[in-house]
Amino acid sequence: MDVVRGRHWDRPSPAGEGDYGPWFEACAEGRLLIQHCDACGHQQWYPRLICTRCSATPRWEEISNRGTVYTFTIIRQYHAKPFGAELPYCVAMVDLADAPVRMFGTLTDIAVDDVRIDLAVEAYAVEYAPGRAIPYWRAL
């Protein structure tokens, strides 16, 4: 997964990262993670202290940064800074290629009118603080 560094971060940043800390760190290293339970084989996203299937402790597992758009919405009105300057933009729910889970994020590098269900996408990360990054999605 590509990591964009040195970009001015002018939006709200994650605070109180808790269970997400290792995930933000991995994104900054160019790795996309989900949780995997060795006890029952369940894969899950978003991070939790326990497996949602069997209550065992899950571990982090690296997966591919590929997926397809499951659903999306186009944001056309939102005038808070800096988002108003980016209108219109797309946020999408992405089915991950390597796991039966979905991740939500901003879809970039495509005209909003060209976004469609089942569009192939890949994650890339944008560093918001040293050693911390957030994934975005772009069309393949």
According to DSSP, the number of beta strands is: 9
Tell me the number of structural domains.
1
- Give the strand content: 35-45%
Strand order of the largest sheet: 5-6-7-9-8
Indicate the mean pLDDT.
94
Order of helices and strands: EHEEEEEEEE
Global morphology: globular
Intertermini distance: 13 Å
Q: Indicate the radius of gyration in whole angstroms.
A: 16 Å
Unreliable stretches (pLDDT < 50, length at least 5) are none
Helical residue percent?
A: under 10%
Largest sheet: 5 strands, mixed, barrel
Please give a structural write-up:
There is one protein chain. This protein is mainly beta and about 140 residues long. It has one domain. Helix content is about 5%, strand content about 40%. It contains 1 helix and 9 strands; from the N terminus they run βαββββββββ. It has one helix spanning about 20-30; strands at about 5, 30-35, 45, 60-65, 65-75, 90-95, 100-110, 120-130, 130-140. The strands form 2 sheets. A 5-stranded mixed β-barrel has the order 5-6-7-9-8. Strand 6 and strand 7 (about 100-110) form a beta hairpin. The relative contact order is 0.24.
